[in-house]
Task: inverse folding
């Protein structure tokens, strides 16, 4: 493990890949790796790319990476596979499209399989991002489908969140529903070669000026009197792209740099790092508590209580009190 960590840190592609596999498969390995690598992290610009299914996220990532490579940046890409069976088919497409990036030693691509719990995926992604950060990648792009809380959690782990939209089918409205507009630092309207692009751009800009569209922006982003502050004076830019032709990518890359500078100058950087640290610690605490609890309370007792609650013999609050009493007893 020690040698593996050392090689990964020196940027050896094979070692990085092997380390990530271990981190994904074993919480103990993840703990060991993060403990060793953490002091070497904090240098990469972590960019979350999210948005409606099919909006062109992977194509944007592909084109953006090419642009960043021209600027000599090293780029890590983490594609979080959509867990929804409806979008499962896009997976193969992603692999094929991203293949023209591979072979370049300045690029590392990893697909995360979605597994069991969503919390587990967010946790695994956070660890993989740390490995890439410690391995010296300048940018780490994390693609997720913006569909639920897990994606929001993953996007929250980024310094900059790019929400990709495309014209047509009331996508704008859907994304508000999914709450993903609220996490955007940069909005990309992709496929502007398609009809209706103007209208999409206009309505998105209008919504941004209307302020928070319900839901909660992350901390520090709404002032006390509920006026949208765009995190300390950051006006959320709307960038028009045609990812298939690489159009708009120079502007997107430049805007990423501008956002990073803004985060640093405004102090928002530290705020976001603190928010992120707390979310991660909270996630780890929850898992740890749950494991402890499961070790301390016999399975039969839990099973018995479940039946009792289902049959209305015991209410859920009383069940929790009894479980906690048992857990204390066995500590
Ligand atoms: N006309 C046009 N098509 C595009 C553009 N960008 C992407 N596409 C096409 O849109 C389709 C979906 O693109 P993807 O990049 O796979 O979209 P995605 O958001 O990653 O999709 P999921 O990961 O399945 O949610 C593909 O067929 C792309 O070729 C664009 O700028 N213009
Ligand atoms: Mg994709």
Result:
């Amino acid at each position: 493990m020690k040698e593996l960590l050392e090689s990964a840190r020196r940027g050896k592609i094979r070692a990085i890949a092997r380390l990530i596999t271990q981190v994904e498969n074993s919480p103990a390995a993840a703990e060991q790796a993060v403990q060793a690598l953490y002091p070497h992290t904090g240098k990469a610009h972590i960019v979350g790319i999210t948005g409606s299914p099919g909006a062109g996220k992977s194509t944007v990532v592909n084109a953006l990476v090419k642009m960043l490579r021209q600027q000599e940046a090293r780029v890590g890409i983490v594609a979080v596979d959509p867990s929804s069976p409806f979008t499962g088919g896009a997976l193969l497409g992603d692999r094929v499209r991203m293949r023209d990036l591979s072979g370049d030693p300045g690029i590392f691509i990893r697909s995360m399989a979605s597994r069991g719990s969503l919390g587990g995926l967010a946790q695994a992604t956070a660890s993989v991002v740390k490995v890439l950060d410690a391995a010296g990648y300048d940018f780490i792009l994390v693609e997720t489908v913006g569909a639920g809380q897990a994606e929001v959690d993953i996007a929250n782990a980024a310094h900059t969140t790019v929400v990709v939209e495309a014209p047509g089918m009331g996508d704008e409205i859907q994304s508000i529903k999914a709450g993903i507009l609220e996490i955007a630092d940069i909005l990309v309207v992709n496929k502007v070669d398609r009809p209706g692009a103007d209208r999409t751009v206009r309505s998105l800009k209008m919504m941004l000026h209307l302020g928070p569209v319900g839901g909660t922006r992350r901390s520090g982003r709404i002032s006390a009197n509920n006026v949208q502050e765009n995190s300390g004076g950051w006006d959320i830019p709307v960038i028009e792209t045609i990812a298939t032709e690489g159009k708009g990518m120079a502007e997107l890359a430049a805007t990423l740099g501008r956002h990073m500078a803004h985060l640093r100058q405004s102090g928002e950087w530290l705020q976001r790092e603190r928010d992120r640290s707390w979310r991660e610690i909270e996630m780890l605490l929850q898992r740890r508590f749950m494991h402890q609890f499961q070790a301390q309370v016999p399975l039969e007792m839990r099973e018995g209580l479940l039946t009792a609650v289902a049959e209305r013999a015991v209410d859920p609050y009383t069940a929790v009190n009894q479980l906690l009493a048992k857990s204390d007893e066995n500590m």
